[in-house]
């Protein structure tokens, strides 16, 4: 496939770029600063730009088969949702249907999956703006009428790809570690490009 990855230099985005290339996809990596993406590959095209630049997003997204959104904004809000709005509008303009978006476990109806620390300390206080931005981003995608999947991972780790993560509608309780490696998250995102199991759904990811 010919993929465009928004947020390609982030800790998840860069993994998605690397694994997509390894699987034979053509990849356009879109990010504000591409200097941190130390990758060269004949199937990799680099586009430096701000996802809030609607015209640039629309022009760059043309002629791709699918879109992956792994935008990050730290504890700040609005970049994910506003940028995703531009991406979705560009997809509609160019007839692109498939989008897989990175969100977070705890957004929307997955909030009860979290433990006390994540509910009330992290997302309740420290990351409140980030959670609100994720939820606004999800609403943009859910209302798009496109072929979307929203991936909600637990806290990222630097562990290896295990392939043994839990995915789907996760049960709250003591059996969840509320952690999952960036390698496994990227693996799942790419799988969602051609698998309709979670079409129009919001699968969680955790060990």
**CA-CA gap between termini:** 29 Å
**Count of structural domains:** 1
Could you state the order of secondary-structure elements as H and E? EHEEHEHEHHEEEEHE
> Strand order across the biggest sheet?
3-2-1-4-5-6-10-8
> Which structural class matches the secondary elements?
alpha/beta
Q: What global shape is seen?
A: globular
CATH architecture descriptor? 3-Layer(aba) Sandwich
Mean pLDDT: 93
Indicate the low-confidence ranges by residue numbers.
none
* Assigned CATH superfamily: NAD(P)-binding Rossmann-like Domain
> What is the β-strand count?
10
Which radius of gyration do the C-alpha atoms yield? 16 Å
| Percentage of β-strand residues | 15-25%
The top-level CATH class is: Alpha Beta
What's the CATH topology label? Answer: Rossmann fold
Question: Biggest sheet, in brief?
Answer: 8 strands, mixed
- Count of helices? 6
The proportion of residues forming helix, as a percent range, comes to 25-40%
